[in-house]
Amino acid sequence: xxxxxxxxxxxxxxxxxxxxxxxxxxxxxxxxxxxxxxxxxxxxxxxxxxxxxxxxxxxxxxxxxxxxxxxxxxxxxxxxxxxxxxxxxxxxxxxxxxxxxxxxxxxxxxxxxxxxxxxxxxxxxxxxxxxxxxxxxxxxxxxxxxxxxxxxxxxxxxxxxxxxxxxxxxxxxxxxxxxxxxxxxxxxxxxxxxxxxxxxxxxxxxxxxxxxxxxxxxxxxxxxxxxxxxxxxxxxxxxxxxxxxxxxxxxxxxxxxxx
Length: 259
Prior knowledge:
Layout: E1 3-4, E2 9-10, E3 15-16, E4 21-22, E5 27-28, E6 33-34, E7 39-40, E8 45-46, E9 49-52, E10 57-58, E11 63-66, E12 76-79, E13 84-85, E14 90-92, E15 99-101, E16 106-107, E17 112-113, E18 118-119, E19 124-125, E20 130-131, E21 136-137, E22 142-143, E23 148-149, E24 154-155, E25 160-161, E26 166-167, E27 175-178, E28 183-187, H1 189-194, H2 199-212, H3 222-229, H4 236-254
Parallel strand pairs: 1-4, 2-5, 3-6, 4-7, 5-8, 6-9, 7-10, 8-11, 9-12, 10-13, 11-14, 12-15, 13-16, 14-17, 15-18, 16-19, 17-20, 18-21, 19-22, 20-23, 21-24, 22-25, 23-26, 25-27
Antiparallel strand pairs: 27-28
Helix pairs in contact: 2-4, 3-4
C-alpha cells in the first residue's frame, strides 16, 4: 500500500504504485498516475491527467499538471523517470498536446514549464527558468537562473544558456548562448567533455562554430552552412549542428521549424 500521510488528500480514481510516499497537506487529483519509487513531499499538488514514471521526487509547493488557462480544463502531463522537481516549480498541463518531461532532469526552484512544452533527458534547469508553451528543449541542456525560453522556441541538445538569457527563437545544439535576445558565443566545451565527447569532436565543433558564427548574433552565416553541408566527410556532430542551423534559418525566414 502507498505510504500516505493522514493529512494528504488523494482523490478516488488516482492510481499510485504500492511504494509511493505522499507527505502531509499534499493533493493528488483523480486522474493522476504515479509510478513506483516516487516521493511527493508535503504541500505539493499533482493534478490533471498527469502520469509520473518511476522514482520522481516532487518537492514542497510544486504544482504538476496545473490548468493552463482560466477555464480550468484539465490537460495532460507525461513525465518520465528519476526527475527531481524542486520547490515552487509549476508544470502546466497541455491541452492540444501533452506537456512532456523526459528522464533524469533536475528542475530547480520556481521554474515554470508552459503547456505543451517538452524537455528531453538529463537536463539541469536553474532557479526561475521559464520554458514557454510548446517550447522544446534537447538532451543535456543546462540553463542558468532566469533564463526565458519563449513559446515555440527550440533549444538544441548540449546547449548552455547564460543567466537572464532570452531565447526568442531556435537556438543551435552544442552552444553557449547569452543575452536578451540571445547571441551564440561559442561551444559548450565543458559540458561536452563531461558527456563523453572526445577532443577531436570538440575541435571539429569549435572550428565549425568559428566559421558559422561571429559572436554578435544568433544566425549562422548561410554561406558557411552551405560550404559545410557540401563536405561529404563532415564530422557527424558538426553535421547535426549545421542541419540545425539551416532549420533555424528556414524557420526565421518562413515560419518556425519543429527541430
